[in-house]
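Q: I have 257 residues here and want to know how they pack in 3D. Can you give me a structure?
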Amino acid sequence: MSKHWTALILAGQRPGVDPLASHFGEAYKALVRVAGEPMLTHVVRTLNAVPAIGRIIVLGQEPGVLVAAVAAGGGADILASQSGISQSILDVAGGDDAPWPLLVTTADHPLLTRQMVEAFMSQVDDADVAVAMVERGTMLARFPDARRTWLRFADGAWSGANVFALTGPAALAALHVWTQAEQDRKRPWRLFRHFGWGLALRAITRTIGLADALGRAGRRFGMRVRLVPMRDPVAAIDVDKLFDHQQAEAILADRAE
């Protein structure tokens, strides 16, 4: 597989004090240690191991504080980000620093593996935008006590895996919509109202599956949007809270055995 993907790691900080970072005495969430290393280091190392990724860009408000963690993961370019996620991606997407196609993930995803990334890439196909998700049944079969935010649709309840593909200029429309919809990301009907009230109504009444909803939302803006169901439930475990941190440490300890 040729090295043609650019990977973007979102390592910015939302306004205010991050509770997890504060708990561990860190100013930046991306630098919270899991299994002895910053979360960002784990993610950089994983992406450096994927043969199809030719370039890795880390986006953060203060690039200097991320240098050591990035170097420990094998290295990547670090660029200054904006306050919003979508605007930060828009600033670089498709340019010289981050040519298409883009794989986007987050610095708080230390459990991400090469296998997960390659499984996701293999299902992007001809989509302009692809979104990795884990269905509730897949998660609970392995982690019955899982604490996630579930988006409930006719085809199941879904939790995001913080992995996205943006494959070309058509995906820019999704980023422009996201600048308006970012605050609604965990409320399906509010999110889908940005794509029309009819779709929002079907989302809130659960009379449409998530895959179909994403497809219809994309067509409204001239994009092909694909849901990529992930078979490994660990793909949906990012580290936002102390419980997540404890779970991530346990999973990494099991992998090390």
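Q: Anything worth noting?
A: The longest helix spans residues 242-256. The mean pLDDT is 90.
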